[in-house]
């Protein structure tokens, strides 16, 4: 884990999780173009400077949001009620359908809004690993450590699930359960995996809980951690910056 | 803490992990298709109900939905929804829990699952209104949005109840879920 102050990875996971939330709400409730555009750009810059992204992830982060905005602009241009925007300029007429500039404006605002929320979410999504988030929740959010450890267990269950799923699939195939091709059959086949997969997982959970309790898990009120996730002054700076994004809608007024 | 046994926690972790794995593609798909067809977003909104419904119906204990969705949310941090995944998940889990909380966890009949789910969709529709600019859509699109929203909630609740019934039949929740009261069945 990089400890450089420029790397978003060195910041506290709980701060990265909670601090963007007010800005997300402000963006989600905004109706103009300015607010989501500015907040989205700032989030993108934060990710590009501090994210340490590489390869395909970097490509998606840079190319994804503009694509999303373009897609939403066009699709909302189609979905928007023409009666609301027919005083704006008609850009294109195909048969009974007319593309109004007002509809595109609505679509652009929606697209920017979705992209900005997505980018704010990626600040934590791309720069945090799960166990550190749980450790920080126990240490800084005072989440009871028993619940936190259930979170660790849940993360460890995921690779086990994939193996179980493969075994169940093979077992079904050996018994000739799969009934042909097509999307409906595939969906039904996956439905057949759900119950044995979950039943197996819950039985595994039973065994894990026995093993944990046999080792004295939950006997004491507190539990010390081998690995400490720090909460430093740089986290306060990041939190202040992200919360300050809530004032972006008032900026044009303040600037005149 | 007395009711929060390790076994109960691990059962929630198991259902939560499965829910989390299911919701990662759901978050990806919802971002992709909400971009192209907002109506399809309404159609898959019910997927979020599957985990909490299964957890509540199998474990029949206070907090099952909230815990399960919280643990699923930790896994969902890796999806594009990021932190909003934990909040979305907690919101769905908490909302589904509410109906059972109000009835003091005494009623576990299917209608309460459907009623709670439908009430949450009303709330969700209101918040989605602003986010997706739904009031600017044509009337037909608005009607379709709500029909799809409630239909998907009902279908996935039903699916969750079926899975829960089969899991209970497999006996996995024996010792966690309280024994069924004969008068209530």
UniProtKB/TrEMBL annotation, chain A:
Main localization (coarse): membrane
InterPro entries found in the cross-reference section: ABC/ECF_trnsptr_transmembrane (IPR003339)
Keyword tRNA-binding: no
Keywords: Membrane, Transmembrane, Transmembrane helix
Cited CDD domains: EcfT
Residues spanning the membrane: 33-51, 58-79, 99-127, 236-255
Protein's UniProt name: Energy-coupling factor transport system permease protein
Source organism per UniProt: Actinoplanes italicus
Organism ancestry: Bacteria, Bacillati, Actinomycetota, Actinomycetes, Micromonosporales
TrEMBL record, chain B:
Keywords: Membrane, Transmembrane, Transmembrane helix
Spans through the membrane: 12-33, 39-59, 64-81, 87-105, 112-132, 144-164
Protein name in the entry: Energy-coupling factor transport system substrate-specific component
């Amino acid at each position: 884990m990089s400890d450089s102050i420029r790397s978003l990875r060195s910041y506290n996971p709980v701060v990265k999780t909670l601090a963007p939330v007010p800005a997300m709400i402000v963006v989600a409730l905004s109706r103009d173009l300015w607010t989501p555009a500015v907040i989205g750009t700032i989030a993108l810059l934060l990710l590009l400077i501090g994210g340490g992204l590489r390869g395909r992830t970097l490509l998606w982060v840079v190319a994804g949001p503009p694509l999303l905005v373009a897609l939403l602009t066009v699709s909302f241009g189609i979905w928007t009620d023409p009666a609301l925007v027919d005083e704006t300029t008609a850009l294109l007429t195909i048969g009974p359908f007319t593309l109004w500039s007002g509809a595109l404006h609505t679509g652009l605002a929606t697209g920017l809004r979705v992209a900005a929320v997505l980018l704010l979410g990626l600040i934590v999504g791309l720069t945090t690993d799960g166990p550190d988030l749980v450790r920080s929740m126990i240490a800084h959010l005072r989440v009871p450590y028993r619940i936190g450890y259930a979170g660790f267990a849940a993360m460890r269950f995921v690779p086990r699930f994939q193996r179980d799923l493969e075994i169940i699939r093979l077992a079904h195939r050996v018994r000739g359960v799969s009934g042909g091709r097509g999307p409906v059959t595939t969906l039904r086949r996956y439905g057949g995996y759900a119950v044995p997969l979950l039943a197996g997982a819950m039985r595994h959970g039973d065994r894990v809980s026995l093993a944990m309790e046999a080792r004295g898990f939950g006997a004491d009120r507190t539990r010390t951690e081998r690995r400490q996730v720090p909460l430093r002054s740089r986290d306060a700076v990041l939190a202040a910056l992200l919360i300050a994004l809530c004032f972006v809608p008032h900026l044009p007024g303040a600037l005149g | 803490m007395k009711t929060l046994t390790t076994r109960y926690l691990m059962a929630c972790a198991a259902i939560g992990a499965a829910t989390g794995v299911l919701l990662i593609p759901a978050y990806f798909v919802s971002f992709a298709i909400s971009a192209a067809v907002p109506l399809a977003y309404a159609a898959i909104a019910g997927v979020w109900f599957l985990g909490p419904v299964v957890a509540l119906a199998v474990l029949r204990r206070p907090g099952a939905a909230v815990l399960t969705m919280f643990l699923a949310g930790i896994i969902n941090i890796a999806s594009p929804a990021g932190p909003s995944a934990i909040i979305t998940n907690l919101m769905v889990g908490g909302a589904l829990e509410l109906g059972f909380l109000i009835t003091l966890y005494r009623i576990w009949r299917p209608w309460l699952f459907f009623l709670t789910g439908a009430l949450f969709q009303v709330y969700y529709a209101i918040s989605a209104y602003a986010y997706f600019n739904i009031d600017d859509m044509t009337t037909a699109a608005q009607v379709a949005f709500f029909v799809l929203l409630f239909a998907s909630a009902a279908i996935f609740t039903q699916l969750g109840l079926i899975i829960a019934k089969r899991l209970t039949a497999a006996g996995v929740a024996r010792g966690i879920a309280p024994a069924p009261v004969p008068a209530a069945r």
